[in-house]
């Protein structure tokens, strides 16, 4: 059966509770719940995960990532990861998104296996640890061996459209043993072409835009106010429609 005849799904990377609401309204199949978009996504708070679980009827996969920069974690960070996985399980999440590497960048198969075992019956998506690995095809086999159900990847490129050729190779190599989910730079304008080029049936996008500040009084001298990002509902709806 070709990918064009298989029902395709959109996962939304949601940076906050409002994006969760938008993703569900737009018809997404799953939310990857994250904090800190400027750091590429880190573990959201207990309160955020709990509120999202109460809100959503679609699948909820919080990211478990204690910090940015890389996917190698010391013993203190590993302990944090285990605590956060247990928290997600207790809150009734459908799965988690997580990736662990060795110091040389290869997938830490043993720790990933441990997380898959600890997470059960939750599912485990491997986040973009594969995109930092020295050999992307070896990394895919390692994630399959670890028991992950899905891997998020740009094909080691800056965006999924740029990595389409490698993504197609990964989909073929996976041979239904794991779901290869293209992400990074996925938009309504390119998702149909990306599907055709790769054979993938699940896609990942944040489709984020800057939210307006609803507070009338601000102080420009306060430099840590930051930016709040929310999902673009029209863009998400267009992607869902394109996948149908």
Could you state the order of secondary-structure elements as H and E?
EHEHEHEHEHEHEHEEEH
The percent of residues in helical segments reads: 25-40%
Number of domains: 1
Q: Which percent range describes the beta-strand content? A: 15-25%
Q: What oligomeric state best describes the polypeptide chains here?
A: single chain
- What is the helix tally? 8
CATH superfamily: Copper homeostasis (CutC) domain
CATH C-level class is: Alpha Beta
Mean pLDDT: 96
The low-confidence runs, each spanning 5 or more residues with pLDDT under 50, are: none
Overall shape: globular
Strand order of the largest sheet: 3-2-1-8
Round the Cα radius of gyration to an integer and report it.
Answer: 17 Å
How far apart are the first and last residues' alpha carbons, in Å?
16 Å
Indicate the CATH architecture.
Answer: Alpha-Beta Barrel
Sheet with the most strands, sense and barrel status: 4 strands, parallel
Number of strands: 10
**Structural class, from secondary structure content?**
alpha/beta
Describe the structure.
The protein is an alpha/beta fold and 244 residues long. The protein has a single domain, classed as TIM Barrel (Alpha-Beta Barrel). It is built from eight helices and ten strands. The chain has helices at residues 17-26, 46-55, 75-90, 109-119, 136-146, 164-174, 191-198, 233-243; strands spanning 9-14, 30-33, 59-62, 95-98, 123-126, 150-153, 179-182, 202-205, 208-210, 229-231. The chain has a four-stranded parallel β-sheet with strand order 3-2-1-8, with helices on one face. Strands 4-5-6-7 form a four-stranded parallel β-sheet, with helices on one face. Strands 9-10 form a two-stranded antiparallel ribbon. Strand 1, helix 1 (17-26) and strand 2 form a beta-alpha-beta unit. Helix 4 runs parallel beside helix 5 (136-146). It is globular.
